[in-house]
Amino acid sequence: MFRSRCFGADPNLFIPGRGQSIEPALAICNGGSFVDRRTHELITYVGECSVKADCRGYQQSRNEMGVWGGEFFPTKDWQDPDDEVSEVAVVVTLQDARPQSAND
What we know:
This protein is 30% helix and 13% strand. The protein is of the alpha+beta class and 104 residues long. A two-stranded antiparallel ribbon has the order 1-2. Strands 3-4 form a two-stranded antiparallel sheet. It starts with 22 loop residues before the first helix and ends in an 8-residue tail after the last helix.
């Protein structure tokens, strides 16, 4: 029987909150590197997790949110930390859409 790479890892890596990166979880599933937030060490995984397909199948059967099988299924409160412009653009759009008075 194979053990998943995420066994024993911080579950918050796989179900990120607002502004949290998904890169550590993707590196664990798909192979890659990331810097550990607590120890500041570079952690590298080579190759894919051996149970990646089973993990993705579990997500599909239960419609879970987070990183499953190397893919990201967004949570309700997650926002890409590199995407700070999207909320500002919505505010500007809503302000521009205000009805104008007859005197304008």
